[in-house]
Amino acid sequence: MAETVWLFLGLLGVLTLASAIATMLTWKSRRTTDVLPSTLVNLNSRIKAWWIMIGGISVAFLFGKQGVILLFAFVSFASLREYVTLTHTRRGDHRILIGMFLIIIPIQYYLLWIEWYGLYSIFVPVYCFLAMPALTAISGDTERFLERVSEQQWGIMLSVYCISHVPALLTLPIPGFEGKGLLLIAFLIATVQGSDVLQYVFGKLFGKRKVAPKISPSKTWEGLIGGIISASLLGASLVWLTPFTVVEAGLMAGLACVMGFFGGLVASAIKRDRGVKDWGHMIEGHGGMLDRADSLIFAAPVFFHIVRYFWTI
Amino acid sequence: MNVKALMRRTCAMLLAGLARGVTGVRPIWQGSSPSDRQRIYFANHCSHGDFILLSSSLPPRERERTRAVAGADYWKRNKLRHILAKDLLNTVLVDRNWIERSDDPMVIMLDALADGSSLIVFPEGTRNMTEEPLLRFRSGLYNLAVARPDVELIPCWIENMSRVLPKGAFLPVPLLCRVVFGTPVVLEPDEDRKDFLSRARQSLLDLSPEQQKVLNHG
């Protein structure tokens, strides 16, 4: 597919440019001081991590559907592990917790693999939703029952159900777009992650008014609006990856950007509640897997269902 | 290199890989740093996975010469366990039973130290199943400190392992774990057993996340 080649050449270009700018800044800073400012250190490790992440995604894309499904099963595993680490668990929850990792994740992604929409879209919100509290009740420990059960439900919904909607895009039958599902995934990831970066850049440059000062000092109206507008333009310029028209591509990217913003905000609220800055340390400079995936978690299901409603038969 | 040593090394590598894969364990060198000095690592004990997690957090060379001290009554209960403990995990087995024991645990531990090994000990003596963060320390740690003042005593707080693999569970839940290495505890001149043990216990407790929160926020 010519589009895939162009896409990765484009990404290669953007990353090389980012690395070149960072190297130049580092070199300039080294001339005046021995100790690099922490923003620059963080920028360098972030760019390095982006190389690794894009490398990983590219390898998964080379293997097609199977590769992407395995990649996101792994993202679910790493996210759920970070999430459960921060929740309150008791001895009696041990079996349920193991089941979340060893049963629910494999089943959800297997259902995607065999493209059984009727079951993968309700397996977690119907069957797991009811089975997990039932099994917890059988274990007999009622201490903080509601809290434990709710935390488990949230973990599964966010880390497994919502994330699985990214590879689920592959199962959508879009007329005239057969066999190009991977490109749609690339579009979603590029616009959501791109808008994260753009919001960060606009926030740093022009940020004054905070959206939710109690939750996140770095999320500003200037960053949000600048991010939405620029991400919409980014989406429109990536229209060749999609079955959309130029305007539709811009609107879909804008929507993914808004959802991604809410995802980041909710993730920040949870982290603040638990008194941590990052979810984990898996991705150098970024924090944990969930720090990178939080925006995708909110954007993917909405993006999926809008595409499914308007573009499939 | 003989077959046993090779098996041991392979086993240690596999376990370390498994521990990393499941718990993503990270060492936090807070009051000490990795070194070639002979050491006794003393840690809180809630799970069978504890010593695997701790030794996985050590640099490979130190890991190779570090042996865990474990209860002979548990690990000699059947043949399979005994082979596992002795040949594969290379543990130092000591008798915890005070009345019927045949070999003096102190002699066995000092022998291992004399061979140049570093040790992992759990001074609570058994896995802690209570709601208390840390049980009272047994006196072995004090005796070791008196007999070998040249060996550094490093407190190591193992975080979350009791949730990953609680007592009686067979499969681990993948949760993120950390091992926090604290400042070495040195026996003061004229310090008596009780004072030393409670000071060592406190130094370990200070590394726990609850305690760290209190320390950080005044």
Task: Give your account of this protein's structure.
The complex is a heterodimer of chains A (313) and B (218). With 313 residues, chain A is an all-alpha fold. Chain A folds into two domains: 1-62; 66-311, no CATH class. In chain A, 75% of the residues lie in helices and 0% in strands. Chain A contains twelve helices and no strands. Chain A has helices at residues 2-32, 38-62, 64-85, 94-113, 117-120, 123-139, 145-162, 165-168, 181-206, 221-237, 246-274, 289-311. Chain A is globular, with a radius of gyration of 20 Å. Chain A starts with a helix and ends with a helix. Chain B is an alpha/beta fold. Chain B has one domain (3-216): Glycerol-3-phosphate (1)-acyltransferase (3-Layer(aba) Sandwich), CATH 3.40.1130.10. Helix content of chain B is 42%, strand content 16%. Chain B has a seven-stranded mixed beta sheet, with helices on both faces. In chain B, α1 packs across α2. Chain B is globular and about 45 Å long. The model of chain B has no long low-confidence stretch (mean pLDDT 89). At the A-B interface, α3 and α4 of A face loops of B.
Shape of chain A: globular
Radius of gyration of chain B, whole Å: 17 Å
The value of Rg of chain A in angstroms is: 20 Å
- Counting H and I runs of at least 4 residues, what is the number of helices of chain A? 12
Class based on secondary structure composition and strand pairing of chain B: alpha/beta
Number of helices in the DSSP assignment of chain B: 10
Return the average pLDDT of chain A rounded to an integer.
92
- Taking the alpha carbons of the first and last residues of chain A, their distance comes to 24 Å
> What is the CATH topology descriptor of chain B?
Glycerol-3-phosphate (1)-acyltransferase
Strand content of chain B: 15-25%
Strand arrangement, major sheet of chain B: 1-7-6-2-5-3-4
Report the uncertain regions of chain A.
none
Helix content of chain B: 40-55%
Number of strands of chain A: 0
Strand tally of chain B? 7
Question: Which sequence of SSEs, written as H and E, runs from N to C of chain B?
Answer: HEEHHEHHEHEHEHEHH
What is the architecture of chain B at the second tier of CATH?
A: 3-Layer(aba) Sandwich
Mean of pLDDT of chain B: 89
Tally of structural domains of chain A: 2
